Amino acid sequence: YILIFIAAIFVNNVVLSQFLGICPFLGVSKKVDTALGMSMAVTFVMTIATIVTFLIQKYILDAFGLSYLQTIVFILIIASLVQMVEIILKKVSPSLYQALGVFLPLITTNCAILGVAILVIQKEYNLAQSIVYAVATAIGFALALVIFAGIREQLDRTNVPAAMKGVPIALITAGLLAMAFMGFSGIA
Q: pTM of the prediction?
């Protein structure tokens, strides 16, 4: 379990190694506060989605020979969970709901969530391993997103050449961050 946890956070970081979840990674990473909010929402949805999709896969799709419906069923489950999170955020934290704005529906199409749900099935993890993997992957996503947001906030205060402002410097920074995370590849 520890190996799964460490590997999912650092070695096989879902954003920086597997390139899943790039849309919210680039879109919500301009402010640390927004990145933290998105990280919490993704962590919740990813964990719950992994549990629900694992159980549906094992006890319904596999049991009735409907494995070919995996992707469609998983997408429907994730979309339903995101709607639930959206309703809860609207009532519990309207400011966070406003801050996330258009990016909250991006969780529905966040391929990191669908990727984790499918990967735990492909890796043949049991339910406990699946939960550890989902939580660790979400932590890895959050770590990458918050670090990237902090760097982008700092870049806004520095004198960046006009041609490099905005997306170009963000992509270069993301590449450097991915290379930094490659340094963890010998751990697990």
A: 0.86
What band does 109 get if pLDDT is binned at 50, 70 and 90? confident
Which alpha helices (DSSP H) does 57-110 contain, by range? Answer: 70-92, 94-100
| Vertex 116: Cα angle to 60 and 81 (nearest 5) | 65
CA–CA separation, 106 and 37 (whole Å): 13
Question: Nearest to residue 15, comparing CAs of 132, 180, 128?
Answer: 180
CB 29 within 8 A of CB 166: no
CA distances from 158 to 144, 151, 169, 178 (A): 21, 11, 12, 22
Name every residue whose Cβ is closer than 8 Å to that of residue 145 and which is 6 or more positions away in sequence: 15, 24, 25, 28, 29, 35, 38, 39
Sole residue written with tokens 């640390």: 32
Q: What is the mean pLDDT of the chain?
A: 89
Residue 185 · residue 6 · CB < 8 Å: no
Q: Could you tell me the two tokens for 179?
A: 């290379």
Q: Which helix (H) or strand (E) holds 10?
A: none
Residues belonging to the chain: 188
